[in-house]
Predict the 3D structure of the following.
Amino acid sequence: MKSTRPILLVEDDRIDAMTIVRAMKELNVTNSIVHVYNGLEALEYLKNLNKEKPCIILLDLNMPKMNGIELLKVLKNDMSLKKLPVVVLTTSNAEKDKTESFNLSVAGYMLKPVDYKQFVDVIKDINLYWTISEIPD
Amino acid sequence: MKLDSILLVEDDRINALAFKKGLGRVNNAIELIAVETAENALHHLRNADNMPSLIVLDLNLPKMNGIEFLALIKNDAILKGIPVVVLTTSRNPQDKINCFNLQVAGYFVKPIDYFELIESIFNYWKKSEFAHLIKEKQ
């Protein structure tokens, strides 16, 4: 990443979260990863002024309590949080989820591959892209 | 939907040609539509059959500039679903913050290795899904 700030991972599935963390490690991504389990926990983190704002948010969609689309609606209506790039990482191939996500201006919508090697590839491309791109301060 | 077409809004012909060449090297199946002004981009987007997967936008354009164009796109109920990537020489921090507040999906400052840049944009967006934006024919 072009920033040393943490990556916020919003993911309720422990196995998927472990896979993402493992892939980041394998790719020598040095940013720390803050892992929260749903939209509510993500908001709690983002609203806490003592916590460092993330450089990007990796967002799962199907989660309990507050799902990814619900979180996106809150973020994109918040003057200080709307600038944060959000990349959706999900198993949902539903047209409705894609349309809602892009209407809420996500910066990418990646389907989680089943195969670990392909999963690493997706994380690699996300990391490289956000290393070349600027990130909001 | 997958990445199948890119609308490039760039007034510098040399840069537009370099982008076209770079994209051709990584993939020649993607349709590239290049326009030189924001007005022409809006004109192109008026046609329901012309919805690109992705918009690549220069900021410093004659007449309507890139940020004004972005503000229009992001206030349009249909067009706001198209991701916009900014490619600029501007090192002005205010431009960057304005663009991220206007929901850009990437902000690349030139000069950078052009081929590496295009390859990264392509590798990233080819893995992304896209919304199927349905625009009523006018």
Chain B has a mean pLDDT of 92.
